[in-house]
Amino acid sequence: MNLLIAPNPGLFVSTGLVALMLLAIALWSAPWRQLGSVSVRQHAFFFSCLGLGVFWTLQVEVRELLAFHPLLITVTVMLFGLRLALVAGAAGVLVQHLFMQMSGANGLWQAMPLEYVLQVAVPAGWTWLMIGLVNRLSFKNPFTYFLGVGFFGAGLGVQVMTLTALLLFWLIGNDLLFDVLMDHYLITVLLMFPEGFINGTLATLLTVLHPDLLRTYRDDWFTR
């Protein structure tokens, strides 16, 4: 979700503080040594940083106030874990705005903290929670991983993001954005299927072809 108008001061400050705190923690505690020890994982990480930003430019605008696009954060968390996904998402937001500025599309630098919180931090946290729940299931099957997290988790993550945005707009008192999002809430429902399909398909392919790349996939747990 992208904001196409400048956020009010309360929205900018509150999301900016949250975004800075989360990004600082992620940068400090991310497993950089493990990432640097495997060249394939490094390439995948840098490709994700660039790919997220480019993919997010494929968006649908609503009344020149909001824009919706697939997130792809779920599969990013499945690949790299929560902390590296938060870093990749921050890079993706920056790349997205650079591309939008170069192409002359709508995009506001002031909206970056809000976009980071809504389209990166919230779905990333939700995905991490889903992975934890799947790992605690009593039955062991790879399908519970890429179906439960990749398909259903990603689809539900769209609604978690939307409800968080509505709550945030309501608490801050931004009636315009709250009303627009409520009026076009059906769009977020329709986005659940493509979000789940894209993330689930990528997660399935990676689980089958390159399970060693998936940091959150426990091959010894799901296949024994």
UniProtKB/TrEMBL annotation:
Protein name stated in the entry: Uncharacterized protein
Species name: Simiduia agarivorans (strain DSM 21679 / JCM 13881 / BCRC 17597 / SA1)
Membrane topology reported for the UniProt record: Multi-pass membrane protein
Top-level division of the source organism's lineage: Bacteria
Primary subcellular site in the record, as a coarse category: membrane
InterPro entries: CbiM/NikMN
Pfam families with a match to the protein in the record: CbiM
Membrane-spanning residues: 12-30, 42-59, 71-96, 116-134, 146-172, 184-209
Annotated compartments: Cell membrane
